[in-house]
Amino acid sequence: MGMKIQYFSDYEGMSTKAAQLIIDAVKAKPELLFCAATGGSPTGMYKALKEAAQSDESLFEKMKVIKLDEWGDVDSKHPVSCEYYLQEHLVNPLKITPDRYMGFSADAENPKEECVRVSCVLQEKGPIDICILGIGTNGHIGFNEPNLQMTDHCHVAKLAPSTLLNGMVINMTKKPTYGLTLGVQDILSAKHIIMLVAGSGKEEATKHLVSGKITNDWPATHLWSHPNVDCLILG
Ligand code: F6R
Known about the structure:
- This protein is α/β, with parallel strands linked by helices and about 240 residues long.
- It has one domain (about 1-235): Rossmann fold.
- It is built from 6 helices and 10 strands.
- Helix 6 links the parallel strand 9 (about 190-195) and strand 10 (about 230-235).
- The site of fructose -6-phosphate has 17 residues, from loops.
């Protein structure tokens, strides 16, 4: 089967395992293209990567990073932006230079055009070698929300009410009005996907994910159509 599910009793164990998968991959292919999610699920993994970078300065010197998604209508310097998160947890600690970092700008004036731009970047620099994902309480991946149909490529996403309760934005008075995200096929085109399942309120989403039944009501279940997914579950 394409999905390898592993359970962890502690967050650190899950994070260390995910980091090790990435370190092994980057040793085998230093210039790999890494697609980065933000949020509570991958923070421990990024910390472990930072430690690895500190003990081996050359480890990530060729790795390229693409941002999975971004909140729309949020200043990129605002601490809730995915940009701010990635600068703090990944780009700065791993010394990813601007020429090796790409993705949606939170400040883009025309979000649709920004999606076209990122699609072109992905076409030119892709495919993604490793894609890190978290899962929303509603089963979303990136900002691919439950919907009648999934959207294949980069798009402006209407955010589900539960997404606006995510820890990153829950305390904002003026919430993001949309999301910018890679589409489901963009994600599934990655050679290797690492899904991290951690955080409160994920019980139902996890149940659907591990069931193996693919449904647009729980977008993460589409990962079952991919040949190489590591699904690391805390709990
Ligand atoms: C964030 C992203 C989202 C999150 C998901 C889980 O870049 O793509 O899909 O991965 O909402 O968020 P956390 O990890 O904060 O529970």
